[in-house]
Amino acid sequence: MIKLMQRFIQNGYFLLFTFVTGLFYFCFYLVTLTLGLSLSFTVVGIPLLTHVLRTTSIFVQYERVQTKIYTDITTPPYEGKLRTGSSFWEQAKAELLDHRNWTAIAWLMLKFLIGLLCLLSIAILYITPTLFILVPLLAHFFDIYFIGIRVDTFSKSLIIMSAGFILAFVSSWLANGWVRLIGGYTRQMIKILNR
Question: Read out DSSP for 111-139?
């Protein structure tokens, strides 16, 4: 039972981290790519785009490590690009024309939508059962209604608390499946990028 609770909490952390990293990737790439493309007619835009595109391998490796730590899903290592000793402009051209960079950016920015679903999952799978379990303690301080019925007796609050424990068990199972799907997303992303 303790292992099941630890796994449930670890899955919650992973879902929360997925939301945070998805939001970060979306904002980071949206702002930097827009800025880099709008400044590309100046000398500043191309170096900015080059450095932004180089971050894709770092972020993909981070996703790989995060997936391994929280889900225990092993993914193949992401084979990054080797930088040659050529001039900066040749390296910039190589970075800009490398389709793997743009594919990685698309996969990482799509993680924002997955992160929004994760945030909704946390509200449904974690907060709702916790509130149900805490009903006997909260019923003394608040007027609580459940499906239009006022919870005004201790026996009614115990019924809702038992429903909360059942909901927590079902939520644990659903959260584990959802985390596995997200881990499969990372595995598929790296598989496509390694082609």
Answer: HHHHHHHHHHHHIIIIIHHHHHHTHHHHT
